[in-house]
Amino acid sequence: MPGPVQSIERAAAILRLLAASSGRLGVGEIAGSLGLARGTAHGILRTLERVGFVEQDGGTGKYQLGAALLHLGTSYLDVNELRSRAINWADALASRSGEAVRIGTLLDGKVLVVHHVFRPDDTLQALDVGSLLPLHATALGKALLAHDANAAASIRDTELESYCRRTITDPRLLARAATRVRENGWAAEIEELSIGEAGIAAPIRGYGGLVVGAIGISGAVERICDTGRVPEPRLVAFVRDAARAVSRDLGGSRW
Description:
six-stranded antiparallel β-sheet, DNA-binding, WH_DNA-bd_sf, 10 helices
């Protein structure tokens, strides 16, 4: 039997390293992390860039996963599988938080709501399954933007709509918000889509750590946030725990 192909093993290791990173990585960082010669790492990266599996930032020269790979990585996962894997965790999150829960995935530059659990009380609520939400004005959308190059690319050259006074429409401010999401591991919206409404969301990852969706809660600002309009740590923990649980079920074992 033929043995393993070393160059493919090294390319796979680079892709896994980039998938696990919270930001872009330079050639030296990649080479050092994997014990490769700098020239070897650079050659593999240039090949991966030519086929669209990695992208190089023109300003910093650092690398991140490319849109082609992200599309390939998420194509195995249809909406029904995402929903079926997450449904029990979504119900538990609604019960623990006392708020409505939505699960979303990227579709044509929007967040497609694939599952919705009502807030567990007697208030009148409308089912949001099938709704398309803006990426830049929702916690679900920011969780996708921060971790999915496809999501970021889909709105890069579009004019962002303002829904409320607090909606972020400046691409530079949105990029900073995405950086904070990557650093914190969760996203928030506070009266950015609807007055009086707030939300918290975290990314759902599949095999290799690639983001395939997001799960989050939404409700009145006074319930989601403290008096300083900061999301309650207890609710953030609930959302992150649910995202990790769904990720584990989808093969993202590190999360």
